[in-house]
Amino acid sequence: MSIVYRRTIPLAITVVFLVLMVCEYFFASPVLKNVGLEMQSWAVLISAFAVGLGVITILRHHGMRIAKRSEDWPMSAWLMATMVLFMVLGIGFGQNNPMFKWIYDNVYGSLSSATYSILGLFITSAAFRAFRARNLDAAVLLIAGFIILMGATPTIAALWEGLRYLSGWVMDVPTAATGRVIVIGAALGLITLALRIIIAKETGFLGGGSGEAA
Amino acid sequence: MQQEESRVVSLDPAIWAAALMTIGIYSLGFKYNRFYKFCEFTLVGLGAGYAAVLAWDNIQRIGIRNIQTGKAYYIIPMVLGLMLYARYQPKLQWLSRYPLAMIVGIGTGIAVRGTVQADLVSQILGTMLPLFGSKDPLTYLNNLLVLILTVTGLVFFIFTIPTQRVKGGALMSRIGRLGLMIGMGALFAETVAGRYSFLVERVGFLLIQWLGLR
Amino acid sequence: MSKWIRSNSVAVIYAVLFLITALPILSPLGLPISIGPTTRKFASIIDSLKKDDIVFVDINFSPGSWAENGPQLAVIMKHLWTKGVKVLFFSLAVDGPQMYMKAIGQATPPPSLKYGVDWVYLGYLSGAETAAAAITKDTWSLVKSDYFGTPLQNLPIMQKIRTAEDAQLLIVVTSGEMSWMWVRQWYERYRKTYLLAPISIMVPSGAPYQQAGQIAAILAGSRGAAEYEVLIAKPGEGATVTDALTMQLLYLMCLIIIGNVIFYTQRKGRRTSATGGI
Tens digit of pLDDT for each residue in C102-147? Predict the structure, then answer.
């Protein structure tokens, strides 16, 4: 009996909602449309609760580090303090609160932008140290990359207009073809996953309940 | 952040906060240090706090507001969302499977229903281009190349049968791999160009808005 | 000195990179910019819009990617203001409202255009693909008021907008994966034109959709924005980065060439010594 409510019913729920969403897309039924829209709202709402799991995990992990006085535990305390402060400001006083906006624009925004951009430094040093035309594959990668780089350099492209068309050709023909391979592969993978869920072969997403066979 | 008119170092605390955070992140490029660690932990803390604020916003907007306007059945997804937290109680972990099952079913259904048309059928149709019949030979060469690279790329990704042993399989796999190298080269080039744009923006902020050098 | 450089090569590389980024920012070089074919196509599609055509614009990025998406949004707004079209702005990203306010501050509409008549902003719509499906299927069912709290029935522009069938064009300015979702929810459902303005990193991923005709044109990051600004003669933030970007990319290409020359020289030296100089 326990396997019914621990495994069978949850899998049945997954299948029912998956099929419902697919049917809502393909059949022009007002009832299906309304039910589908409501279920999508429910999913967004339930997903919002899932964020709390992440917050709890962070609190537990860093709380443990503080309790055990692990290495750099003051940093963990700082992390928890910033997280709680930001939550209190945003939830208690709203996102238009001046202090929330100040922290968001000047601290969080700057940290995000800088993190985005620091990869440029690492790519530069990695390109110098590791980007070698050791074999045919690497040489092809290097040449294609160079053509696109030159096309992306505004001034080089202005000096030789043909370069624009060459880099455009590389993007429109071979890059589009290989991108297509990845898109088709991902689509086939997603369809396979959906079919596996429908026939109850894919159960890893259920998680929870130690000691039970998936 | 307003750009100051006189060429002096900014006295605005907001700009100083943003500048110090940016420098802290960039310091990683030279050596891993405590200032970088402080900035990293700040980013993680604020990011987690922000995610929680957004989640609460969704709960209010979708859950609480709908209940207040008469849609009492929104209590159900609220309860389902709270059931996610049952995973912290070993004997009740199985309860968390129900909301998870619903989210996975709805999410997979939404993802897969559009994928068949957009990512499979349309992409295959985009590969089936005319190979002869017009006056421009370059167009047909390009169409042929798209067809060859797409098919050989798909052959390269077949791992369930040994394509090396199939007649012509090794050659097709090799051509597909070279095509993928061109795509990876293009991806590298565009990634670099993108990251450099972010770097220019941050360096510009430091020089102009913070140090007032222009 | 050369020993110090060799042992601190990474720091030297970064320092030089910062220097060549900083110099053109402090003293613009005025290097020429050429306009690529996809930027021209992007602009020509917007140019082909007629008076009172309806355009949906999804502002779908966060402050972290303002460097690329900000100039794109501003120049697109500037071009749309000149076409006499009706624009429905909305955001599927939670930071969208702030990005809208910042962009409209840079691309101020001319006095002849009126909010609520010529354009409207609906604010952040939560739910990602759910919201996208809903806003294209029935806009009025998803939102009751605009971002500023004005009921939709009080906005003249909204009397002409109910579904995606009423629109001629969708423009998405984004830093994330929403781009491909809109192929499903917009192009495949309604067969209407879809223009994408993503960050540069996403351009190769968009190539198959562009080649298949699902995305009409892609505006590539800040350099695409710079080209667009030059094309429609409305300078903005995009054009200020091109000098520095040129220097950075030239530097990278030089580093790659130098690295490969060193590699082959050393390999040749190893082979020569292995064969005893023969």
Answer: 999 999 999 999 999 999 999 888 778 878 888 888 888 778 888 8
**Using CA atoms, how far apart are residues B208 and B214, in angstroms rounded to an integer?**
5
**Does domain C38-235 correspond to CATH entry 3.40.50?**
yes
Structural domains counted in chain B: 1
A156 with C252: Cβ contact below 8 A: no
Structural domain boundaries of chain A? 1-93, 94-131, 132-203
ipTM: 0.87
Domain that holds residue B188: 129-214
Residue type, A125: S
Q: Is the CB of C210 less than 8 angstroms away from the CB of A175?
A: no
Residue of C nearest to A114 (CA): C64
pTM here?
Answer: 0.88
Residue B70 lies in a domain: no
Cβ-based contacts of B128 with chain C (< 8 Å): none
Q: Do B207 and C22 touch (CB under 8 A)?
A: yes
**In chain C, where the domains are located:** 2-29+242-274, 38-235
B121 inside domain: no
**Residue in B17, B110, B153 nearest the CB of A107:** B17
Both structure tokens of B68:
């207040």
C203 vs A contacts (CB less than 8 Å): 171
Is B158 within the bounds of a domain?
Answer: yes
What gap in Å lies between CA A142 and CA A170, rounded to an integer? Answer: 13
Contact: C204, A180; criterion CB under 8 Å: no
Looking at the partner chain, which of C128, C250, C256 has a beta carbon nearest the beta carbon of A128? Answer: C256
Each residue's pLDDT tens digit, A142-165: 999 999 999 988 888 888 888 888
* CB < 8 Å to C258, chain A: 128
Q: What is the DSSP letter of B4?
A: P
Phi, psi at B161, each rounded to 5° = -125, 150
CB C224 within 8 A of CB C34: no
Give average pLDDT by consecutive 10-residue segment, chain A, 214 residues. Answer: 85 93 89 87 88 92 94 93 95 90 91 91 90 91 93 85 88 92 93 90 70 40
Spans of chain C, pLDDT less than 70 = 1-7, 274-278
B-chain CB neighbours of C181 within 8 Å are 114
Residue B55 has pLDDT above 50, yes or no: yes
Instruction: Measure CB to CB from residue B58 to each of A5, A7, A48 and give the nearest one.
Output: A48
Q: How do residues C201-234 score in pLDDT, each as one tens digit?
A: 999 999 999 999 999 999 999 999 999 999 998 8
Closest to C184 (Cβ–Cβ): which among B30, B114, B123? B114
Tell me, what's the pLDDT at B6?
Answer: 56
Minimum CA–CA partner of C67 in chain A? A113
Q: Which residues of chain A are within 8 Å of residue B96 when distances are taken between CB atoms?
A: 207-208
- For tokens 């000691």, the residue is A211
